[in-house]
Amino acid sequence: MPQRTPPTPLPAFSRDPAAGEPLHRQLYTAVREAILAGRLAPGARLPSTRACATDLGLSRSTAVQAFDQLLAEGYIETRAGTGAFVCHDLPDAALLSVAGDRRPAAGGTGKRSLSERGRRLVQTSGVSRSQNVSKRAPRPFRPVTPALDAFPTALWARLGGRRLRGLSPELLDAGEPAGYRPLREAIAAHLNAARGLHCDPEQVLIVGGSQQGLDLAGRVLLDLGDEIWMEEPGYFGAADALRSAGARLVPVPVDGEGLDVLAGCARSAGARLAYVTPSAQFPLGVTMSLARRLALLDWARRADSWIVEDDFGSEFRFGGRPLAALQGLDPAGRVIYVGSFSRVLFPALRLGYLVLPPDLVAPFLDVRIVSGRFSPLLEQAILADFIAGGHFMRHLRRMRRLYAARQAALVAAVRRWGDGVLSVRAQPAGMHLIGWLPDGSDDRSAARRAEAAGVETLPLSACTLERATPPGLLLGYAAFTSAEIEAGVRTLCDALEGSDRR
Question: What is the mean pLDDT of residues 14-22?
Fold first, then answer.
């Protein structure tokens, strides 16, 4: 009679009271990992549940539950009269090498499975990644961050509570792919009255912020290798979104009248698309002149091209009404208008919108359905109530006064502390100023010194594709009190000077 194979000892097992899992689950996990790693070989005989319980100081019911789970999932098998064995044909056989060694195979890059589009997405500029919201609260002078301390949170909570208390089946459903209709109606009414657009609610498409809107435009309008005009310097987030669509970015210089249309035509007369921020250019803050606007629209009509108008910071013009949008001057339907509530209200509100020419509405909706159909309806309903109740316009008026005061505080602080190392020029709109550095300075090095001192900023050169610009730093002021601005400027100037000026 053949001698029975002795059981293989189970791996060392240390119960972990802090694990938050019952003991039978911890035992199951330890045995499963030992099997996948090859420490318990296929065909190995396991101790009986009674012996297992005795050896590990567990109750037999704990061991039985663990073994039953392993049996049900196919890691072990039982044979009548002989006990339990590790299965030869494991369900996770392909994971054996992964469990044993998680390092990439020799010569591997870890990126071999990426598509060409995936590689483009990974390789786009690191500026957008560096500007992702960190776990820390905003510090002076993080750009593109609104005044979170001045947002009417109690009012927003009241509107949200009212919606939750009367939650309707409509808001629990998926809704229209274009977005919550009352919100689209409120946006169209606001844009027609305050921004000089010509649109109706059917042209408004709700998206998850302006970045998703730019990505969607790239998917619908651009083919691999298409050339697009980008303002130089310009918004890095737009550059990343459009570059990831496979487009070739053509930098077009910006001067005191905005994007230089003649320079764009000289560099790429047949470009497929132009991206512009005409009302308050990012990052320089200049306004595109009427002559340049008309020239840009004429170019788009003649070249059968598109214009993406990103209305960056235009709501925050301190003297008089905000300037009329480029879209309102467009008789040929060549302009796609992009807006974001994340910049105007608060970043966690991932809601933005596109205003599309009528003949682009259907294709954009089709692609929106494929790439991510809906934005959350409850947030859309609260925002619609916020706009319809007049709260949005009141908030904008308050923020214009507040941002004007905070810009003035920044200008005064730089004049007080920046002699010889930093200068600024006031602008009539926006949420940041350029802090100009002395000629010959390295603004990237200056930004690193500022970061080491606890000040957040962005070098102006990070907003360029190829053209050398005068050295400067983006100084966001909207999110910070006058006291924070004063202290931040002093710290920044100390870091730039390289000495502590007490």
Answer: 71
